[in-house]
Every structure is written in C-alpha cells, then in structure tokens.
C-alpha cells in the first residue's frame, strides 16, 4: 500500500470514529430530553417544597399545562380526597411559579412532549393521565404499580430517584420488583 492509500485509510477510520462519537452524543441529547428544568427563586423552591411536597413529592411543574395547574390551585380544599387549602397569598405565589414553568409555557423537549399529547381543551387532573405519560408507562405491570413499594403512578420517585429534580433519565430508573429497567 502506498502512502496516499494509507492516508485515505486513516481518514476513513477517523470518519468512522467521529460518526460513532456523534451517535454517542445523541445520548446527551436524549438525556436533556428526559429531564425537565424548573426556573425558580430559592424562596419559590422552598415554598413549593414545604406546601406541595409534604404529602407527596413536589412534582416538576413542566409536566402539566398551565390550565391544569390553575385547576389544581383552584380546588385545594378538595384535593384528591385531602384538604390541601392554603391562604390566598400563598396560592397566588405558587400558582405564578407553576404557570411560569408549565408544560405549555416552556420549550424544553420533554415538556413539549407532555403538552402536545393533550387535546386543546383537555385539562388533566393528573400528570399520570397525560397521553404521553400513559404511552411511556404502558408496559409496566399493574401489579407493580399497586405494590406496597410503589402504590400508584403518582409516586414517581419510587422508580425515578431524581424525579423531584426533574430528571427521568433512563439509566436511573429502578422499578421495585424489577430492578434496572430494560426497555
Ligand atoms: C394534605 C396532603 C396534600 C398536600 C398538602 C398536597 N397534595 Fe397533591 N395530592 C395529594 C394526594 C393524596 C394525591 C393523590 C395521590 C395518589 O393518587 O396516589 C395528590 C396528587 C397530586 C397531583 C397528581 C399527581 C399525579 O399522579 O400526577 C398533583 C399534580 C398534586 N397533588 C399537586 C399538588 C400541589 C401543587 C400541592 C400544593 C399546592 C399539593 N399537591 C399539596 C395530597 C396532597
Ligand atoms: C412503577 C415505576 C414508575 C413510576 C411510579 C413512574 N415511572 Fe416514569 N417511567 C418508568 C419506566 C420503567 C420508564 C421507561 C419506559 C420505557 O422506556 O419503556 C419511565 C419513563 C418515564 C419518562 C421518560 C419518557 C421519555 O420521554 O423517555 C418520564 C418523563 C417519566 N417516566 C415520568 C414519570 C413521572 C412524572 C412519574 C410520576 C407522576 C412517573 N414517571 C412514575 C417507571 C415509572
């Protein structure tokens, strides 16, 4: 093989490697896609955790559209069988925070998947009723969701350890009774 050919071989090999690297960094893109950021002041984070994170985890706002958060905040005295009533000032402050970060108010990829899977007038009462959620969780056996370790789909953190931080990375998923999730 002459030197010119060797040069081409190296070039081809390099192209192959770069191709593989680009594909691997498609993973970076995917991880970005599996998380939902929340823009909040430390005070909003504190208030949200203390008022909306005591009975269950503080759900990332970017998984429900603004109209659904309005509905939740407008009916706190009858909230899934509980009374979660708050004073008017707190409701207003939290509602502003939730709406600013709502699924249809941000353009991060995962939020858009959630908001665009809903029909225009549809106001879901739960994240776990949103079309995209249902589709992504359809393979999980009912028996596991109802098990004492989980209880219901509302307990995101039982399978997604960093759900409260808005991370739903595939590599982090641990389903009680099944362990590491392999699609
Ligand atoms: C007194 C307890 C309590 C407080 C405080 C509370 N919740 Fe809840 N919340 C519940 C219960 C119970 C459920 C139903 C959970 C289930 O079905 O497993 C629920 C469910 C939810 C869901 C639906 C979860 C899903 O499956 O998608 C959302 C959203 C929600 N709460 C938002 C809030 C917000 C926002 C606040 C603060 C303003 C709040 N909650 C405060 C008790 C509470
Ligand atoms: C019983 C375990 C379990 C619970 C509870 C659960 N999830 Fe998941 N979730 C999974 C599994 C498993 C997958 C991966 C599904 C797949 O790839 O086939 C997943 C995937 C996801 C994804 C990724 C979708 C994508 O675009 O790739 C998001 C977002 C998500 N879950 C959000 C939530 C939220 C929010 C909650 C709570 C309201 C929740 N999950 C509750 C097991 C669970």
Keywords:
two-stranded antiparallel sheet; 45% helix; 7 helices; 183 residues; single chain; binds heme C; mainly alpha; 2 domains; 2% strand
In brief:
It holds the Pfam family DHC. The chain has helices at residues 3-33, 42-52, 66-74, 88-100, 109-116, 131-137, 142-145; strands at 174-175, 179-180.
Task: Walk me through this protein's architecture.
The protein has two domains: 36-125, no CATH class; 139-183, no CATH class. The chain is 45% helix and 2% strand. It has seven helices and two strands, in the order αααααααββ. The chain has a two-stranded antiparallel sheet with strand order 1-2. The longest helix is centred in the N-terminal third of the chain and has 31 residues, at 3-33. The chain is globular. The chain starts with a helix and ends with a strand. The site of one heme C has 26 residues, from α5, α6 and α7. This is Diheme cytochrome c. Pfam families: DHC.
- How many beta-strand runs? 2
Total individual domains: 2
- The class by helix and strand makeup works out as mainly alpha
Question: Can you give the mean pLDDT?
Answer: 86
* Order of strands, widest sheet: 1-2
Q: How can the largest sheet be summarized?
A: 2 strands, antiparallel
Computed over alpha carbons, the radius of gyration is 21 Å
**Backbone shape:** globular
Question: In percent terms, what proportion of residues is strand?
Answer: under 5%
Give start-end ranges of low-pLDDT stretches.
8-32
Report, as a whole number of angstroms, the end-to-end distance.
46 Å
């Amino acid at each position: 093989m002459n030197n010119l050919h060797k040069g081409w071989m190296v070039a081809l090999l390099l192209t192959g490697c770069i191709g593989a690297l680009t594909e691997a960094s498609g993973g970076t893109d995917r991880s970005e896609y599996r998380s939902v950021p929340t823009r909040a002041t430390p005070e909003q984070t504190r208030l949200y955790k203390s008022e909306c994170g005591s009975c269950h985890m503080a759900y990332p706002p970017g998984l429900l559209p603004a109209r659904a958060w309005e509905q939740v905040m407008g009916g706190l005295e009858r909230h899934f069988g509980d009374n979660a009533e708050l004073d008017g000032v707190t409701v207003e402050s939290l509602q502003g925070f939730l709406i600013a970060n709502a699924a249809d108010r941000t353009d991060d990829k995962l939020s858009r998947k959630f908001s665009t899977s809903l029909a225009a007038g549809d106001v879901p009462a739960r994240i776990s009723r949103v079309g995209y959620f249902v589709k992504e969780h359809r393979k999980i056996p009912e028996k596991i969701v109802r098990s004492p370790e989980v209880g219901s789909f509302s307990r995101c953190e039982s399978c997604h350890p960093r759900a409260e931080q808005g991370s739903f990375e595939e590599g982090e998923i641990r389903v009680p009774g099944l362990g590491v999730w392999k699609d």
